[in-house]
TrEMBL record:
Reaction(s) catalysed (UniProt annotation): a myo-inositol phosphate + H2O = myo-inositol + phosphate
PROSITE patterns: IMP_2 (PS00630)
Protein name: inositol-phosphate phosphatase
Lineage, opening ranks: Bacteria, Bacillati, Actinomycetota, Actinomycetes, Pseudonocardiales
UniProt keyword annotations, A-Z: Magnesium, Metal-binding
Length: 247
């Protein structure tokens, strides 16, 4: 099985497990902790079987040494807050492979049952002419992100889970996803891999590349967008940062 298919199968299996855990009797933080734990254990155990020489970095378990430059980056449950809220579906599972700092394979398994993956990338969906829609965090909204609505003339759309927001760009539900104020490698690696494979732009808010496998896993900001919006959004973000607007 190649790396793309492995990412797809593991993300899908963890998502299906999380659905079953959610159907049990747990609720609130206890549900989130148990879902995170079981999905993490499934992913790490499977990677040790299928790619025993590779390193693994998980939100729930740190990094496993080794890998000769190959690093699997997984988020067993992205959108834990939303997962714990009955009736919400904006959570996902992320599985990605980075080689030499660049994501080369990945999958985002959505709670809906759909898994987006790099082995069979879907091109960006066509969208109607409209004021650009930008997905943003429900809970982490620094002034830099809020300032976009004015400077770039866009409409902000709050959503949970980085994976859900990135896949909303791919599906055409929104035109961009912008985040600032704190994320880690496991939050963005798989969404970036899938979005790039679909033909989207992905970078830091200053236009710099997304680099993975760093000693410090913090990657605090992110822009994923339709390529025709790249200059508009990065220009607006540069203007806001020049004004001293906080990230």
């Amino acid at each position: 099985m190649d790396d793309h298919a492995l990412a797809r199968d593991l993300a899908s299996a963890a998502r299906d497990l999380l659905v079953e855990v959610r159907r049990g009797g747990l609720s609130g933080r206890e549900l989130g902790r148990e879902g995170d734990r079981q999905a993490h254990e499934l992913l790490v155990a499977a990677l040790r079987v299928h790619r025993p020489e590779d390193a693994v970095r998980s939100e729930e378990g740190g990094a496993v040494s080794g890998g000769d430059g190959r690093l699997w980056i997984v988020d067993p449950l992205d959108g834990t807050v939303e997962y714990c809220e009955r009736g919400r579906g904006d959570w996902a599972v992320h599985v990605a492979l980075a080689v030499g700092g660049r994501v080369v394979a990945g999958a985002v398994a959505l709670s809906s049952g759909k898994t987006w993956w790099t082995g069979a990338p879907e091109p960006l969906a066509a969208v109607p002419e409209r004021r650009p829609l930008v997905a943003v965090s429900r809970s982490h909204r620094p002034a830099l992100v809020d300032g976009l609505a004015e400077v770039a003339d866009v409409e902000l759309v709050p959503m949970g889970s980085a994976g859900v927001k990135a896949m909303a760009v791919c599906s055409g539900e929104v035109d961009a996803y912008v985040h600032a104020g704190g994320q880690y490698e496991w939050d963005s690696a798989a969404p970036v891999a899938v979005a790039l494979a679909a033909g989207a732009h992905a970078s830091r808010v200053d236009g710099g590349p997304m680099v993975y496998g760093n000693r410090d896993p913090l990657i605090p900001d992110l822009v994923i967008c339709r390529p025709e919006l790249r200059d508009r959004l990065l220009g607006a973000l540069a203007e806001l940062r020049a004004r001293g607007v906080s990230v």
